[in-house]
Q: What sequence folds into this?
């Protein structure tokens, strides 16, 4: 099918993938640029676009999905990264060992010879600590989401006229 014949079949607002690097034969690359009514009056009229300017969707590095369910035409969403928090991890515990410490009784040796009599020895003090925690880990760095095998193509919208 020749370009002219295909041009007659396409309607303003129709989109297509292509191997072309840029605009061609009434097709504009969907790259997020602003277009003006003065340059594309037929396109603005057929699509009933208000105002003198419109922003083309930018579909570079995006997966396309059908509108009409939970998404409206032109609506964007999604993310290419994901940040996990502790709430995303399964409930778990980290084992720690019981920590025990004890203080020994002081000896009178330091006080001998300076005129001090018997010194009462304090009782032995034992400390058992439980519930120790592990240190905080993690840096909150986003991870890239895996994508299925794919082939990138340019996407275009038909204006019905050359710019």
A:
């Amino acid at each position: 099918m020749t370009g002219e014949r295909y041009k007659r079949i396409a309607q303003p607002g129709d989109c297509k993938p292509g191997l072309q690097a840029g605009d061609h034969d009434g097709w504009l690359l969907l790259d997020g640029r602003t277009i003006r009514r003065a340059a594309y009056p037929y396109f603005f009229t057929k699509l009933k676009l208000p105002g003198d300017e419109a922003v083309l969707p930018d579909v570079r590095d995006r997966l396309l999905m059908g509108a009409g369910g939970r998404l409206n035409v032109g609506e964007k969403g999604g993310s290419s990264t994901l940040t996990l928090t502790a709430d995303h991890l399964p409930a778990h515990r980290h084992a720690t060992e019981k920590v025990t410490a004890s203080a020994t009784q002081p000896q009178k040796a330091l006080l001998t010879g300076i005129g001090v009599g018997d010194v009462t020895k304090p009782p032995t003090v034992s400390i058992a600590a439980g519930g120790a925690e592990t240190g905080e880990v993690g840096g909150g760095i986003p991870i890239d989401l895996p994508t299925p095998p794919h082939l990138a193509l340019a996407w275009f919208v038909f204006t019905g006229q050359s710019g």
In short: The helical segments are 3-9, 41-46. The radius of gyration is 37 Å. Residues 1-61+153-163 form a domain with the heat- and protease-stable fragment of the bacteriophage t4 short fibre, domain 3 fold (CATH 3.90.1340.10). The longest strand covers residues 99-103.
